[in-house]
Each structure stands twice: as structure tokens, then as C-alpha cells.
Amino acid sequence: MTNALPSPDAPLKIGTRGSPLALAQAHETRARICAAFDLPEAAFAIVVIKTTGDDRALIATDTPLKELGGKGLFTKEIEEALLSGTIDIAVHSMKDMPVAQPAGLVLDCYLPREDVRDAFISPGLGGIADLPEGAVVGTSSLRRRAQLLNRRPDLEVVQFRGNVQTRLRKLEDGVASCTFLAMAGLTRLGMLGEVPARPIAAEDMLPAVAQGAIGIERRADDSATAALLEPIHDRQTAQRLAAERAFLAALDGSCETPIAGLAELSGTTLRLRGEILRPDGSETLTDAGEAPIADGAALGRDMGRRLLDRAGPGFFDWRQ
User: Fold this and answer.
1) Range of weakest confidence among 107-111, 165-169, 227-231, 281-285
2) What's the predicted TM-score (pTM) here?
3) 3-state secondary structure of 276
4) Which of 8, 40, 199, 245 has the greatest count of CB atoms below 10 A from its CB?
């Protein structure tokens, strides 16, 4: 690398949300760059940026994300800081990322993907099958809501937002019998032994597109930062996300549409599974396919288009 490396006198500024999980992801990014170039932590500055999605008042009211603006809630202010030069890179949970980036920004670095599965969280129950008829379950995810109601239409699903600690308090207060989180988040927070969590097989609850993946965004014209990120980029995660995000893009996916998708690699082959649901769980459509890894994005686009054709007009038109 011929570009000047970050130093305590000229640190690389890492932008992130301020939640415990977002900070853990920023720290992981810093640690990987430190290891790749033998740099001290002081060569980096963690810059916490409050996004619209982090508004405590809105979290407390459990306002559905779709009513607040969708996935951009967690990225808009961070991307503005990146474009203005306030920060040098932005660390994101990839399942929060819109499929297109603003002009001038590029997302081409991914850390190794964590566990993709959802976790069933309950202090007294072992899984979805243990929920009594008519049980109240809490989730802010349209995907999880639709999947749950499709499998168990007897359940009452209520809005449930906040970090791990907030959701556990709500369970203790009896707001719901269970909630759901991503296994990846619990792992990165080191909380698997502290939270009553049980993984749900992807065959039983197909995860969100890009769940478990961390993406690092930069300015498109910043070649020095591109070189800094190159050694920590995980190629297999990128290959899987290329297929999943192409699938999502073909469906015009956002926080307003219940969509699930998962790509897995085996040798030189990529296998992709996809699912779209009516938000009330009354109907689900699934598809699966395989292709050479290099054709993963094309497979994702084709699968998305097939599901749209099968769904027909009005599949995503709904009102609560």
C-alpha cells in the first residue's frame, strides 16, 4: 500500500449508529483493519451518528418502521456525514441497507458473515411450537410477522422495537410471550449465554436478505480508503449478498414488503432460496434455484421477477 496509513495524528473516522450492536460492528471493523496493517486503535476514531431510526421517543411508541420511512431510517444521516467528509467510512448492518447507494458512495467491502438464523427469545418457552393458542408475540419486522401468521394464524403479533435490553424488559413486563432477534447480533454482543435465545432453522423461518452481514461504505473517489479496506473484504460474503440483494432489488424490497432470501455456496455453485408473503400471512410464495457463483446476481434477479409474476398485481397492496 503506497497511500499514507491512518495514525493517531490523522485517524480514520469510522461512522456508526450508537446502539451496542452498531458499536460492536464498528469495533470489529477497526480490529480487522488494525490487524491487517499492524495499526494501533488510536489510529481510528469512532464517530457516533444518531439516525432517525434511533429516536428514543419513536422506539418507545413501537411505531412501525414502514410508517417512519423504511430502511433509510438507519442510514440517511450516516451517508450524509460520509458525503460531507465528516467520516471516512460507514459501518452498516447489511439487512438495514437499501439496495442502491447515493451518488458518490460505494458499498464494496463486507466482513465475514455471521450466523444467518433468527433467534426465538422467551424466558419460559422453547420455540414457536410451544406458544399457546392466541399467544401474544412481539416483533417490529414485517417479514417475521408475516411468517409467524402464515404458520400460526392464531397468534397475536404486536409491535416490538428497541435493542436487546429493551426487548427483554418488555418480555419481563408481560407485553408479549416472546420476541425475535438475529443470532448474529447476539453473537457479536457476546450475549448468547445471557439471553434465553434458541436458533430457528432457516427452513422454518427464512431470514432477511443479508442478515448477519456487515457492510462498509466509502466515498467512490477515495482510493486510499479502498486500499485500506481491501484486505478485510470477504469474497464469499460478497458473492452471497450479490445474489440476495439482486433478488431484493427485483422485488423493489423495503421495510414495507415481507421478503426473505438466503444464498449459500457449495464449491462453485450458489443456491438461492426466496420467499415473499402477504403482510397478514395469508399467502406465501417461495422459489429456489442454483447457478454458478459468478451468475448469482442474475439468478437473484430472475427469481425476483418470477415471484413477482406469480404474485400478480396487488400482492403487496395492503392496509393495516
Assistant:
1) 165-169
2) 0.90
3) strand
4) 245
